[in-house]
Design brief:
heterodimer, A: five-stranded antiparallel beta sheet, 11 strands, 0% helix, B: seven-stranded mixed beta sheet, 54% strand
């Protein structure tokens, strides 16, 4: 069963606007969350993370929000740029409780239209 | 560091043949993960090692799949015999135990096509 879900397979946004990618999880033991970005023919690369002790983490144009009660996190990209077009994976970990492994969602393909 | 290195980048094989995928993790990393990317399940963890020891192989789909890590700098994922439904992109990733809450670093993947 998928413990991390990304229900939107794709998203299109105009350049300069905000991109919002969503992720839901089911395991309340998850305490660390990450977003990865993947370009075609490349491996996923780390983008930004958030610990469950926070509800927001910012890094330049990228902000991740965590709502623990709703078991939901989102990635905001402002402003969106054409180079942001990629597949974005949400991932979660419960540290030693799950052997330090990461559980990934199915990904959301973002297209930023110039 | 060159990062996580996987070989081959592409593999085309006939059904029934044995396939071996290779991975060299980042030096000093203690965790090694094998993932498979499919449209339906996204990045699916197959198996992971800690200090060369397999910790959890519950994601390995069938007995046709096996993985080894003979030393800290090399791991293999073997499929024997291969089937068309094994066609996917397989990723290897590694992470340091000193940063257990941080990200894993991925290789570029091996695109496997079984015909």
């Amino acid at each position: 069963d998928q413990q991390v879900k990304q229900n939107s397979p794709s998203l299109s946004v105009q350049e300069g606007r905000i991109s919002i990618l969503n992720c839901d999880y089911t395991n309340s033991m998850f305490d660390y969350f990450l977003w990865y970005k993947k370009y075609p023919a490349e491996g996923p690369t780390f983008l930004i993370s958030i610990s469950s002790i926070k509800d927001k983490n910012e890094d330049g144009r990228f902000t991740v929000f965590l709502n623990k009660s709703a078991k939901h996190l989102s990635l905001h990209i402002v402003p969106s740029q054409p180079g942001d077009s990629a597949v974005y994976f949400c991932a979660a970990s419960a540290g030693p409780n799950t052997g330090n492994q990461f559980y990934f969602g199915t990904g959301t393909s973002l297209t930023v239209i110039p | 560091d060159a990062g996580v290195i996987q070989s081959p980048r592409h593999e085309v094989t006939e059904m029934g043949q044995e396939v071996t995928l290779r991975c060299k993790p980042i030096s000093g990393h203690d965790y090694l993960f094998w993932y498979r990317q499919t449209m339906m399940r996204g990045l699916e963890l197959l198996i992971y090692f800690n200090n060369n020891v397999p910790i959890d192989d519950s994601g390995m789909p069938e007995d046709r799949f096996s993985a080894k890590m003979p030393n800290a700098s090399f791991s293999t994922l073997k499929i024997q015999p291969s089937e068309p439904r094994d066609s996917a992109v397989y990723f290897c990733a590694s992470r340091s135990r000193f940063k257990s809450d941080t990200e894993a670093f991925f290789g570029q993947g091996t695109r496997l096509t079984v015909v």
